[in-house]
Amino acid sequence: MIGVEDLERQHLETYKNAILExxxxxxxxxxxxxxxxxxxxxxxxxxxxxxxxLFNLSKRFGIVLDKEVVDGLLNAYRVQLIEKFSNIGEDRVxxxxxxxxxxxxxxxxxxxxxxxxxxxxxNSKIKxxxxxxxxxxxxxxxxxxxxxxxxxxxxxxxxxxxxDMRKYLLGNYSKDLIENIxxxxxxxxxxxxxxxxxxxxxxxxxKSNSHLFDISNN
Length: 218
Fold this sequence. Notes:
This protein is an all-alpha fold and 218 residues long. It has helices at residues 4-39, 49-60, 67-85, 90-101, 116-144, 155-209.
């Protein structure tokens, strides 16, 4: 006959596994849907700030750019960005999961709680890595811009356009992208904390009210 201790151990493991699943799913959605959606090609050209700025600059200097060539360059840029961000959630899953795996209740009312400082530490690292990945992708894009111009284009105009794009990509564009990524993370952190709290309350309720735990070891 299964004793109370065995049932409580099974209940705890089920609880911890449910939290681990929440962490994995929450992080997966954060990366594949929330963050990656910021990096994909916008559905409308008018929403594509990089393309819009590039064509506005070329128009200002009376230069005609080949739209297909521009699209090819920007598509390659976005593919590179997405690839760079594909594994950014691994550390988040690992660190949060470790806290769950190490949890063992000392009191009847104990349940899994992830300190806000842990989220802050994880997010600080994600922000730092994000900046590095965005900077690297932007540098690759900038190195490809000269290929957009025909040989007869005035060199001074070419330099001015590339310089303006460099300031934009490494300045406001990167800043806005990082801020949007941070916002997505904060929303997912809040969702995860609430889900963990709900799971904990369900765990304690079942533990306190299920007649299974009234079974004696004899």
